[in-house]
Structure formats: C-alpha cells, structure tokens
Specification:
By secondary structure, the protein is mostly helical. The protein is built from eleven helices and no strands. The chain has one domain.
Length: 312
C-alpha cells in the first residue's frame, strides 16, 4: 500500500481507508489504546512502514548479529579495552545526522526528555526529593549527543534507583501516594528541536538505526558499561511500579511490557528491548499527561473510578 501513495500524500489520512485493503499502519495510527504523543506515534509508524524497516532491516540483521557475536568474543578476551566512549558518541552523532530520517532523530531526542520527566515525577512525589539529585537531560540538537548523552542516560537511571531507594530505606518506608500529586514536571510539549536533515542518504528508520548501533556500542564501551546499559532497558516495569504507588493505580501496567531485570535477558536482544523501552517510556509519559489534565479538570485519576464518581 505504501508504494501506491504519492510523495505528498498523508499515509495516515483516514479518508484513504479502503475496507477491501485496510492499511495496518493507519489502523495503528488511529488506535488510541496506548496514550502516546501523536507526533511520537506518527514518527514511529512512518519508520515502521519505511523502505529501510521493511527491506534493509531484515536483510542486514543476520549480518549485524554475526558482528555482534564477534564483538562479544572480543569483549570476553578484553573486557576493558578499547574504551572509546568519546568516539562512540561522535560516531552516533555523525551516523544519525548522515543516515537517519528526521522522524528517527525526533524519536531519539524525545526519549531523553521523556526519561528525565518520568524520573522527575517519581523524585518530586517521593517525599525524599531533597536527597535524590536531579540530573535532567534535555537535548535539542544532534550535536548534544557528543556530551556522552547515551552513557549519561544509562548512569542516571541506575543512580536514581539507588539513591531513591536508599533514602526510602533510611526512613523505613515505601513509596505511597502523596497528599496531592505534583504533575508540574510533565510537559505537553518539549523544547523545539533543530531542523533535522532530510537529504538523499537520510533514509534509515529508528529501529534499523538502533540495530546497527547496538554492536558498535558494545565494541566501543567496556563490557561492564555495555551490560549495565543493556540491563537498564528492563527497568520500565520498575518505573511503572513506582508511578503506580504514587498515583494509587495499576491501570498503566497493562501497556508496560519490558520485563523485570531480576531475570536478565541476553545482550543480543538489546536492540529490540531498546525499542520496547522507548515505547514503554512514551506510553507512561503519555499516561501521566492524561492524568495531569484529569487532575486539572477535577476528575478521578483512575479512569475506572469515573463511573462511580459520576453515580455518587
């Protein structure tokens, strides 16, 4: 169906729906079961229906996995060298600017804002914010990646969990709903990003880019840094539980699918888990935006209580 659209056509225009030939990507775009940002959803689906995801990704993936296995053997022999963190982030910046679509770059930069706001929500509503440092990452340019952005993101989430739980344990308590939940850090819109290049080579979707970069990440970072980064991708359920304890509802757990890190998955699955991590984070952030607006409208935060509140 994609090939029949003119370059100027909107692939998500509902007026193009043909009941005899329904477009699966249009169905997913119109579906609202996941409360993710419309721009983020559009960018993800444009990537999913793209040439690179449909053709380059499945053809290149076996070769990428072979290279990944060779990297793992190298890291078994030399776990700490090479350590090329600076070169890694410069390479990621160059690759995304040269080959990635604007939609892919949008999804990637959005992720750092989403992650910063999710941790800020838990931190501010935890009752121990004075003992848990704030380390927001707010990139607006691809150049910002060169400031070790991906590594800092991985370090931040583990430091946050350690410092949050150490402070709670010192008080002998768990996270509980505060008297009034503070949603002030949850943004409806992020700062404007730079205009991303859309040149002849900017054809690679976000999932294909992630798959290519994962073994490069493993090659250029010491083994422990890569394993930590890989394990951080399973922390979505942990963050969802924290959020659930604060808002007093587990409704959002139905759309958080990354499993618990107590059962660690192979680093060979890191590319797929990174995509799931991005989707889970967008869904949790989108749900907090919904709750922010429900609170402002005087509605119950748990939608399952809406009918009861109306009848009462």
């Amino acid at each position: 169906m994609t090939s029949r659209l003119s370059p100027a056509a909107d692939p998500f225009d509902a007026a193009r729906h043909d009941p005899r030939d329904p477009d699966p990507w249009l169905a997913l775009y119109l579906d609202h079961s996941l409360p993710i940002d419309e721009d983020a959803k559009r960018a993800l689906l444009l990537g999913a229906r793209s040439w690179s995801r449909r053709w380059l990704f499945p053809v290149a993936r076996p070769l990428v996995m072979l290279f990944f296995c060779l990297v793992k053997v190298l890291r078994a022999v030399s776990p700490n060298h090479p350590n090329l963190n600076g070169l890694l982030h410069r390479t990621i910046h160059w690759g995304l600017r040269t080959f990635a679509t604007p939609e892919a770059n949008t999804v990637i930069l959005r992720h750092f804002h989403v992650g910063s706001e999710l941790t800020a929500f838990v931190r501010v509503n935890s009752g121990v914010a004075d003992r848990v440092p704030s380390r927001p990452l707010r990139p607006t340019r691809l150049k910002d990646i060169e400031a070790n952005l991906f590594l800092e993101h991985d370090l931040n989430i583990f430091n946050f969990i350690i410092e949050l739980n150490a402070a709670l344990r010192a008080e002998g308590r768990e996270l509980t709903p505060p008297a009034e939940i503070d949603f002030s850090m949850i943004s409806d819109e992020f700062p404007a990003f730079e205009t991303f290049p859309r040149k002849a080579l900017n054809r690679i979707d976000v999932q294909t880019a992630v798959e290519f970069y994962t073994p490069i990440y493993a090659l250029m970072l010491p083994r422990d840094d890569f394993v930590r980064a890989s394990n951080s991708l399973q922390l979505d359920e942990v963050m969802a539980i924290y959020i659930g304890r604060i808002i007093g509802s587990d409704y959002h757990m139905s759309f958080v699918k990354n499993g618990h890190p107590l059962v660690a998955l192979s680093t060979l699955q890191a590319g797929y888990r990174l995509m799931m991590h991005g989707l889970d984070s967008e869904a949790m952030h989108g749900w907090l935006r919904v709750l922010k607006h429900r609170q402002a409208a005087g509605l119950p935060l748990d939608p399952r209580n809406t009918v009861g509140a109306a009848l009462g």
